[in-house]
Amino acid sequence: MKKYILGLVLLVCSSLALAKSNEINVVAAENFYGSVANVIGGKYVHVESILNNPDADPHLFTTSAKTSKAMTNAQVFIFNGVDYDPWSKTLLNTKNKDGKRSVIEVSQLMNITSKDANPHLWYNPQTFPTLAKKLVVTFTEIMPAEKAYFESNLQNFLKEHQKVLAKIEQLKSKTKGVTVTATEPVFGYMADALGFDMVGKDVQWTIMNDADPSAKALAEYQNNIKDGKVKVLFYNSQVTDPVTTNIQDLAKKNNVPVVGVTETLPKGVTDVNTWFLSELDAIDKVLK
């Protein structure tokens, strides 16, 4: 009986080990990139996302022993670049235990190289599909026999993402040329895609860089809200401080609709297309 039990234990353990060997270990610096990797890789990937707390300020993140340990097993590492996640460069110095690792820097994938570029690249509607296509190539290089599986997952993802693109086109009749502002440039690429006229960018960038806007810049920014020039205020719901709180209060006082956006996937949301559609629906509701 003991031999039977021991044999059963060994069989289970060997099965678990086989399952692990049949998975591609992926580490994503941000959970939205990890979400895309999960969709494309499906049952053949194990994904760990470093920035995955929707209640935390991504700008305050620092690496830990846990993240370094995850990197030792990573066969694929995905990060944003353009100084959004500078700690990723440090993680790249962590050696992979088998000496092989594919690195996807999304900024390079999207041909964004300037350090002055808006780092919130994922809000560009073309970023996620571009990454998804790259992941098919990367995963296929590691598991050639599963190419058809990865490509099937890609087609399903693109089909869902088409709903996002369709919603953007639908909204343009309401959004094109409409003047808006934001507490930070998080939503910048999507705002461009919608045809919004985004003002107050200097204040947004100053806040993003944890600095205080000049009195002159802040006064002009506030006057755009008070005078009714601005029709919507976008705010980063993951980053709050006295300045951004006062801006929201001013908008509400002057009947300017406020729409919250997040830098990472919100709590309870695991799919990037669902995330974007939710924010686009919020815009649709406030622009009557």
From TrEMBL:
Gene Ontology annotations for the cellular component aspect, listed alphabetically: cell envelope
Molecular function per GO: metal ion binding
InterPro entries noted in UniProt: Bact_metal-bind_prot9 (IPR050492), ZnuA-like (IPR006127)
One of the protein's GO biological processes: metal ion transport
Swiss-Prot/TrEMBL keywords: Metal-binding, Signal, Transport
This protein's record includes keyword Signal: yes
Subcellular location: Cell envelope
Pfam families: ZnuA (PF01297)
Signal peptide positions on this chain: 1-19
This protein's name: ABC transporter substrate-binding protein
Species for this entry: Paraphotobacterium marinum
